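Tokens as discussed.
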């Protein structure tokens, strides 16, 4: 297809695909990949990928990876040259092997590495992530307008109780709360009713300090390879490589 001969669009598509897979596998969501890729093909809409409605997906690399590959082929792309990275819930050698068998070019693990001994996060930050049980983890809209998953700290629990009210009352503010304007599009500052209504900087900074009351602790949904143990990164890599 002519429009994909442009290297810039190919690069954008490549990055976006990683993100599609990333978002899809990160939650119990679903999306019509084919229409998404078709939208990407129109170039100007590529960023709208982030705003796609995703629902009821049962994170399944075995199904999604071949679907993406065949969708790429049907768009006339050289699909075999586009690396697909499976991300979200990679916590065992079996998951790694399964992803590669389904056509992944690589895998990405987030939370398992975040809690390793060598990770430079606050010890409390690692403990919050490692000790979270499934029922402690919540999915909500981030201020950037994307679904996010984090540990339900007292602050997050209170925020979620009033999220809908805050979203209904969202109004554009004259200026950003922290005057940093860290986001090009911020649900709180710009009064976007579908996005989160909190200052992400404020709560990420609290997490950085190990503040379990007010912190925003992003976390994947799946159990960690070593449960709540904080272990050296060497152990993790050895484990994942089987
Ligand atoms: C501490 C932490 C910070 C994260 N920050 C971001 C982020 O800035 N942007 C993003 O798209 N995902 C972010 N994520 C989500 C991860 O990229 C990934 O989707 C999620 O952790 C699921 O993968 P996992 O099961 O390997 O952790 C973050 C995850 C963690 C644990
Ligand atoms: S997240 Fe906070 S600091 Fe960033 S733009 Fe929004 S209000 Fe400003």
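Sequence:
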């Amino acid at each position: 297809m002519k429009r994909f001969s442009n290297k810039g669009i190919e690069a954008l598509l490549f990055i976006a695909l990683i993100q599609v897979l990333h978002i899809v596998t990160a939650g119990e969501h679903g999306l019509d990949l084919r229409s998404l890729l078709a939208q990407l093909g129109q170039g100007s809409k590529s960023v709208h990928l982030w705003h796609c409605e995703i629902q009821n997906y049962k994170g399944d690399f075995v199904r999604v990876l071949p679907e993406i590959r065949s969708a790429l082929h049907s768009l006339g792309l050289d699909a075999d040259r586009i690396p697909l990275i499976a991300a979200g819930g990679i916590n065992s050698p079996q998951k790694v092997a399964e992803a590669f068998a389904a056509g992944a070019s690589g895998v990405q693990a987030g939370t398992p590495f975040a809690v390793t001994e060598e990770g430079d996060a606050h010890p409390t930050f690692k403990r919050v992530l490692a000790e979270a049980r499934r029922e402690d983890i919540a999915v909500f809209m981030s201020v950037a307008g994307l679904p996010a998953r984090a540990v339900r700290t007292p602050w997050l629990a209170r925020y979620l109780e009033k999220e809908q009210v805050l979203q209904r009352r969202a109004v554009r503010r004259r200026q950003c709360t922290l005057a940093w304007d860290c986001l090009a599009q911020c649900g709180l500052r710009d009064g976007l009713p579908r996005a989160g209504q909190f200052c992400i900087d404020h709560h990420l900074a609290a997490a950085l300090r190990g503040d379990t009351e007010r912190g925003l602790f992003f976390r994947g949904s799946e159990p960690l390879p070593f449960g709540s143990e904080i272990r050296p990164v060497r152990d993790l890599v050895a484990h994942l490589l089987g």
